[in-house]
Design a protein that fits this description.
- This protein has one helix and six strands, in the order βαβββββ.
- The chain is mainly beta.
- The protein has one domain: SH3 type barrels, CATH 2.30.30.
- The chain has a six-stranded antiparallel beta sheet.
- The longest helix is centred in the first third of the chain and has 9 residues, at 10-18.
- The termini are close together.
């Protein structure tokens, strides 16, 4: 995963958790959050601060821990 990669599939979200990717979360073009994804379900993801619905938000990788 590289900077700017859009998370779309369950595998993408799983890899973002596994590789500790920092993600930006936007809704209707506005940033509504950012952080590391702690867990995912079929319809939502959890960050340290909140839950976000996958079908309502866009998730973009902004950095990775190496």
């Amino acid at each position: 995963m590289t900077h700017g990669f859009k998370l779309k599939t369950d595998v993408d979200f799983h890899n973002a958790i596994l590789f500790k990717c920092l993600v930006s979360i936007t809704q209707d073009g506005e940033e509504v959050g950012n952080g590391y994804i702690l867990s995912q379900g079929h319809h939502a993801i959890e960050t340290i601060d909140s839950y976000f619905f996958k079908n309502a938000c866009e998730f973009t990788v902004i950095s990775m821990v190496h």
